[in-house]
TrEMBL record:
Species, as recorded: Defluviitalea raffinosedens
Full protein name: Hydroxymethylpyrimidine/phosphomethylpyrimidine kinase
Keyword Kinase: yes
Catalytic activities: 4-amino-2-methyl-5-(phosphooxymethyl)pyrimidine + ATP = 4-amino-2-methyl-5-(diphosphooxymethyl)pyrimidine + ADP; 4-amino-5-hydroxymethyl-2-methylpyrimidine + ATP = 4-amino-2-methyl-5-(phosphooxymethyl)pyrimidine + ADP + H(+)
Keywords carried by this UniProt record: ATP-binding, Kinase, Nucleotide-binding, Thiamine biosynthesis, Transferase
A single MF term (Gene Ontology): phosphomethylpyrimidine kinase activity
Enzyme class: transferase
InterPro entries tied to this protein: HMP/HMP-P_kinase_dom (IPR004399), PM/HMP-P_kinase-1 (IPR013749), Ribokinase-like (IPR029056)
Highest taxon of source: Bacteria
Amino acid sequence: MKKVLTIAGSDCSGGAGIQADLKTFSAHGVYGMSVITAITAQNTQGVFDVRDLDEAIIKAQIDAIFTDIQVDAVKIGMVSQPSTIHIIASQIGKYHPVNIVLDPVMISKSGYSLLKPEAKKSLIEELIPRASVITPNVPEAEEIIRTVTSKPIAIKTVEDMEKAAQELYKLGAKNVLLKGGHMSGEAVDVLYDGKDITRFYSERIDTKNTHGTGCTLSSAIASNLALGYSIKEAVNRAKRYITIAIEHALDIGKGVGPTHHFYELYKKGGLEDGDIL
Ligand SMILES: Nc1ncnc2c1ncn2[C@@H]1O[C@H](COP(=O)(O)OP(=O)(O)O)[C@@H](O)[C@H]1O
Ligand SMILES: Cc1ncc(COP(=O)(O)O)c(N)n1
């Protein structure tokens, strides 16, 4: 069985973060493991409190996994602060996992800052260059480009997304997937691999329940890379998975409900049994 690790924050309400990642791994038939960077108190209505774990326990969790178990892919989500980023970067340098999907989580759907402003530079300099693929949403892409170039940027069209993906590629990740969840019209994601631009389309589903979409997509990509798919096929399959997971999103809680994960949905996306185990 392929083994996939998420390094991310905990969402006690189960919609995003570590919890969404582990559910996604299970639905893909891969073995999920987690290194927790921070504990958040959040639900479908907002984020109420955060405790960042210290670097010693983050380091110890990563050592415990890599000294014992072969890891086929790593997904990195909420990394909060510079010390968390330094220790993750240094541990990646030590263990060299093969597939690294970095979701540069900055602000929750409810508007809470999950990455401290002073950590932006560390994320860009220390983690992005180590990633096999980064998966920013549109506001994150704008923020990263603004931080690097000190110039204002507004991504308004798919063509703007393509230009931004090429700009982000210069930061050293092997691939850039710019997600179009925050645009209007069809939900188009753009992949740039240094050579080709590929667009991934889906209909835009009319729902308020999109808590954890970014976490789900990046974990699905990590699962598919672990299963041996090329980056384009991994993104293609992940896009199909997230579309079904949003279509079946749950109206849980009073606010933005979570995506839904289960094996039957995976099969419904045309992803057959034989493909996943
Ligand atoms: N309403 C929607 N209908 C269909 N796909 C969506 C919708 N909202 C987001 N997506 C897709 O979900 C994935 C996550 O995108 P996005 O919501 O932009 O990420 P984030 O959670 O990081 O803000 C992308 O593949 C995006 O195209
Ligand atoms: C611990 C944690 N990590 C990430 C997100 C982003 O979630 P979303 O995918 O909805 O933007 C979150 N709300 N909480």
